[in-house]
Amino acid sequence: MKKEKRHEKIKNNPANVRFEEAIQWLKDWGFVLERVKGSHHILRHPETRAKLNIQKDKSGKAKPYQIRQALKVISKMEE
């Protein structure tokens, strides 16, 4: 899936994002997986130094509040 299409899909429905898709989406925006500790996947952007924590919920999806946090960081990057 293209970066723009994935971004629109996630932006329109942040509560229904598969975990693997969320990680790929953040990598598309330039985030790098810094470390994994337990269920916490910490991603960092090398230019803005923004850090994000993404976790999988019991259904295999990314936690919606973390997706919303990531959307806020990405919207600031777009400015």
In the CATH scheme, the class would be Alpha Beta
| Order of H and E elements | HHEEEH
Content of β-strand: 15-25%
**Neighbour order of strands in the largest sheet:** 1-2-3
CATH overall fold name = Metal Transport, Frataxin, Chain A
Helix content: 40-55%
β-strand number: 3
By CATH, the superfamily comes out as Hypothetical protein
Distance between the termini: 24 Å
- The overall average pLDDT, rounded, is 94
CATH architecture descriptor text? 2-Layer Sandwich
Poorly predicted runs are none
Q: What's the structural domain tally?
A: 1
Radius of gyration: 12 Å
Which class do the helix and strand fractions yield?
A: alpha+beta
The total of helices stands at 3
Task: Choose one word for the global shape.
Answer: globular
Q: Outline the biggest β-sheet.
A: 3 strands, antiparallel
Walk me through what this model shows.
The protein is 44% helix and 19% strand. Helix 1 packs across helix 2 (19-28). Strand 2 (40-44) and strand 3 (51-54) form a beta hairpin. The protein has 79 residues and is an alpha+beta fold. The longest helix has 15 residues, at 64-78. It is globular and about 35 Å long. It has a single domain, classed as Metal Transport, Frataxin, Chain A. The protein is built from three helices and three strands. Strands 1-2-3 form a three-stranded antiparallel sheet. The mean pLDDT is 94.
